[in-house]
Amino acid sequence: KQEVTQIPAALSVPEGENLVLNCSFTDSAIYNLQWFRQDPGKGLTSLLLIQSSQREQTSGRLNASLDKSSGRSTLYIAASQPGDSATYLCAVRPMDTGRRALTFGSGTRLQVQP
Amino acid sequence: SAVISQKPSRDICQRGTSLTIQCQVDSQVTMMFWYRQQPGQSLTLIATANQGSEATYESGFVIDKFPISRPNLTFSTLTVSNMSPEDSSIYLCSVEGTGHGNTIYFGEGSWLTVV
Q1: Which residues contact B40 (CB under 8 A, 6 or more apart)?
Q2: 3-state SS class at A104
Q3: Are the Cβ atoms of A89 and B103 closer than 8 angstroms?
Q4: Percent helix, strand and coil across chain B, each rounded to 5?
Q5: How many Cβ pairs closer than 8 A exist between chain A and B?
Q6: Are the beta carbons of B103 and A49 separated by less than 8 Å?
Q7: Per residue in A21-65, pLDDT tens?
Q8: Of A43, A49, A101, which is closest to B33 when you measure between CB atoms?
């Protein structure tokens, strides 16, 4: 059974800092990995999706990497802003084409202090 | 991309009652997924809903408690039956978008509080 772990559980940084969020998964047979952002009491917003054959994806100040063989992904946020404060979730989709639902980590709650 | 609308966005429900959550997508999709997020927790898959067939439920979730309908390729409902305070959660509908590497999209969620 796939298990996804995110470290740290919570992080507080001053505005302007670069930061890294970590995600690890136990079964490397994944189809893709997706990073989401969730604001309190809200749904999830997709940030980046990395296919299993890719090493990284970038969108603006965000960069996500994937090392499938070691079961790890990182989300790098450059020049953090107070508006980045949210919970960040990573999720993996299994290689099994008959099962497309995601398995989620427990999230990293980020607070960026102005 | 896919735009997903969920109703209600928030509700307070009495113990023992049932509530139906609606999920409308702006494009036709094959699979729709229903998740639950209990307070302070991550997302747990309830079931996968395909049009024209019975929903597939995950371990710990049963059809009598969470009946699901999928009448067409753009719409689904999840009913939370005979609610108890333990059912207080955010319920989220999600779909797999076409193109963009099969990105998964989520609705805004339905936040239910059972009193």
Answers
A1: none
A2: strand
A3: no
A4: 5, 50, 45
A5: 60
A6: yes
A7: 999 999 999 999 999 999 988 889 999 999 999 999 999 999 999
A8: A101
